[in-house]
UniProtKB/TrEMBL annotation:
<dbReference type="GO" id="GO:0015658">
    <property type="term" value="F:branched-chain amino acid transmembrane transporter activity"/>
</dbReference>
<dbReference type="InterPro" id="IPR003439">
    <property type="entry name" value="ABC_transporter-like_ATP-bd"/>
</dbReference>
<keyword id="KW-0029">Amino-acid transport</keyword>
<dbReference type="GO" id="GO:0016887">
    <property type="term" value="F:ATP hydrolysis activity"/>
</dbReference>
<keyword id="KW-0067">ATP-binding</keyword>
<keyword id="KW-0813">Transport</keyword>
<protein>
    <submittedName>
        <fullName>High-affinity branched-chain amino acid transport ATP-binding protein LivF</fullName>
    </submittedName>
</protein>
<comment type="similarity">
    <text>Belongs to the ABC transporter superfamily.</text>
</comment>
<dbReference type="InterPro" id="IPR003593">
    <property type="entry name" value="AAA+_ATPase"/>
</dbReference>
<dbReference type="InterPro" id="IPR017871">
    <property type="entry name" value="ABC_transporter-like_CS"/>
</dbReference>
<feature type="domain" description="ABC transporter">
    <location>
        <begin position="6"/>
        <end position="235"/>
    </location>
</feature>
<dbReference type="GO" id="GO:0015807">
    <property type="term" value="P:L-amino acid transport"/>
</dbReference>
<keyword id="KW-0547">Nucleotide-binding</keyword>
<dbReference type="InterPro" id="IPR052156">
    <property type="entry name" value="BCAA_Transport_ATP-bd_LivF"/>
</dbReference>
<dbReference type="InterPro" id="IPR027417">
    <property type="entry name" value="P-loop_NTPase"/>
</dbReference>
<dbReference type="GO" id="GO:0005524">
    <property type="term" value="F:ATP binding"/>
</dbReference>
<dbReference type="Pfam" id="PF00005">
    <property type="entry name" value="ABC_tran"/>
</dbReference>
Length: 235
């Protein structure tokens, strides 16, 4: 088997004195979709923010293609090929749809994604390209956030709470777009509240509980009992 594309090793993360992650380890193999589940406050967002450098780690705690990146700045990590679709979209409200997408494209990496490719994936964004991003529905804003991340042609894409607060039809839409997004070997991490959905789209799953990995396994073989125990701490 080839070397994993991303390895997180014994990661501790802090918000000042508060420790949010305890010795979290995670491996991503190239081309797979991995789900991260866990209750509110379990540390899922903190893990993603640590990977993309928004929270500093020790250099060796995060390795990308064998290179220690834990102490790099967020922009340097983005340039290596890791992008995040943040929880709550976090678009630039004063900019149009297209301007928001172009911001992602400022990181110049070769790959299949361009404005045209994003508009093909989400045609509604093409119709609204000149509109302020704030005039869009929540689901459409999520599409902009996904498009903005794709515009950097990442090798690894991290989706935080991919379907939170979206209408079921939009969630379906976004999940239908997923195979096209992970095409050509792109590797994806999905943080998802809907456990059934998380398991159905991923090959492997990690569960976090109070900042620790409480379960990891193949999505097709973990049992509901294992997940309940890992998620809620019920033994
Ligand atoms: P959610 O599903 O609610 O987003 P999560 O699993 O993503 O939860 P995190 O947001 O990573 O969890 O939070 C992990 C822990 O860190 C929680 O106890 C949370 O209160 C704390 N935390 C998160 N952000 C901050 C912050 N900016 N300052 C201090 N503590 C924080």
């Amino acid at each position: 088997m080839s070397e994993p594309i991303l390895v997180v090793t014994a990661l501790d993360s802090y918000y000042e004195d508060f420790q949010a992650l305890y010795k979290v380890s995670l491996t991503l193999n190239e081309g797979e979709v991995v789900a991260i589940i866990g209750a509110n406050g379990a540390g899922k967002t903190t893990l993603l923010r640590s990977i993309v450098g928004l929270i500093k780690s020790k250099s060796e705690q995060v390795k990308y293609r064998g290179q220690a990146i834990g102490s790099l700045r967020a922009d340097q990590i983005a340039a290596t090929g890791i992008a995040m679709v943040p929880e709550g979209r976090q678009l630039f409200p004063s900019l149009t749809v297209e301007e928001n997408l172009l911001i992602g494209g400022r990181i110049k990496r070769a790959g299949p994604w361009s404005l045209d490719a994003i508009y093909e994936l989400f045609p509604v964004l093409s119709e609204r390209r000149k509109q302020a991003s704030t005039s869009l529905s929540g689901g459409q804003q999520q599409m902009v956030a996904i498009g903005r991340a794709l515009m950097s042609n990442p090798s690894v894409i991290l989706f935080d709470e991919i379907s939170l607060g979206l209408a079921p039809v939009i969630i379906k839409n976004i999940y239908e777009a997923l195979p096209g997004i992970v095409q050509d070997g792109m590797t994806a991490v999905i943080v998802e509240q809907d456990i059934t959905k998380a398991l159905s789209v991923s090959s492997r799953v990690y569960c976090l509980q109070e900042g620790r990995v409480s379960l990891q396994g193949n999505s097709s073989s973990v049992s509901r009992e294992d997940i309940s125990r890992a998620y809620f701490g019920i033994s």
